[in-house]
Amino acid sequence: MSTSRIVVTGIGASSPIGGTAPDSWTALLGGASGARTLEHEWVEQYSLPVTFAAEALVRPEAVLERTEVRRLDPSSQFALVAAREAWADAGAPDVEPERLGVDFATGIGGLWTLLDAWDTLREKGPRRVMPMTVPMLMPNAAAAAVSMHFGARAFARTVASACASSTESIVNAFEHLRAGLADVVIAGGTESAIHPITMASFASMQALSKRNDDPAHASRPYSADRDGFVMGEGAGALVLETEEHAIARGARIYAVIVGGGVTADSYHITANDPEGRGASRAVTFALEQAGVSPDDVTHINAHATSTPVGDPAEYTALKTVFGDRVHEIPVSATKASTGHLLGGTGALEAIFSILAIQNRIAPPTINLTTQDPEIPLRVSGEPIPLGDGPQLAISNSFGFGGHNAVLAISTP
Prior knowledge:
The protein is α/β, with parallel strands linked by helices and 412 residues long. Helices cover 34% and strands 18% of the residues. The chain has helices at 21-29, 41-45, 66-71, 74-89, 111-124, 133-137, 141-150, 165-178, 196-204, 243-248, 277-290, 310-322, 335-338, 345-359, and strands spanning 6-14, 36-37, 52-53, 100-106, 155-157, 184-191, 234-242, 255-264, 299-301, 331-332, 361-362, 384-385, 392-399, 403-410. The strands form three sheets. Strands 5-4-6-7-1-8-14-13-9-10 form a ten-stranded mixed β-sheet, sandwiched between helices. A two-stranded antiparallel sheet has the order 2-3. Helix 4 (74-89) runs parallel beside helix 7 (141-150) and helix 11 (277-290) packs across helix 12 (310-322). The longest helix is centred in the N-terminal third of the chain and has 16 residues, at 74-89. The radius of gyration is 20 Å and the shape is globular. The mean pLDDT is 97.
């Protein structure tokens, strides 16, 4: 086991509020919303009860080569876009292929490829189904695409733990580097699941906001009148490496991954444990691995999806760990701006957490009208200064199936 610190040297993102990580961050600080009315014919064709979502601001086909678009599901396309940005941002590290790894996650995988192929089979027969259908739809396709693009031969691993996927993937990358399995890892997550099937299913379970007349204000974590989450899409990618490797090549260091916690609720396939036991253990594990106290935490990027049940369960978990001090820590619920990227959300929010402690400012939580009195966290519709001194953030992600994943991130 390596004693080296694990540092972040590159970031990349394609999100509903920006085509790059810097653009997404600027938009987030400016209070932007990525939620918009969907302009697809299938919305009316299937009479969907929810007619809006947070689609990526920049489509991957505007960035990738035509052959890449043809051979990759949109989820893998977003992954490649974000990974390329992160790699370039890290200065394109000179690393042996056998010492470069990939940990890239998804919650669902190649949904569009799978269901388009089913339509083709049903309407035109088996001879018209593309030979690349299975390689495009498999959940590990994004990790494979990133691995092959950069020639990563140490490993290419995929986590699929619903909305906790990409945070868990970054935790895995942290542990793989500490275990000495690689010197550099490209980590993150992706999702492209704004599809009539998922929109209908989430709406049927009463999970989505129904504010069709006002999409931009639909995602409102912690507001007393919140009514569900907003579907999002995109990807986030980070370049992680051992501190020795980063220093040796003169790399810029954004932040240090100091700990990670992964647990399971074993409670319900879709509902959070209302007592937040698994979530609180994940936070505790991340802080214990970092060797820090809850009193050292200066910022929290909450999972906070804007659902009536999920938001208070996370608050209960945080109160268990931090006690009354949780009411003093600046909290950001960035899904208010981006919507919920499912398997891509944790990586995007890890990037926001890194930039928050680097710039010493907690991003705003937009659409916070009347704060739920049962969730008295320190949130604001305006950015909150984090002050001087060392910064330590935690970034939470929780997923269907009872998955909990938490990152602890510090300034260098």
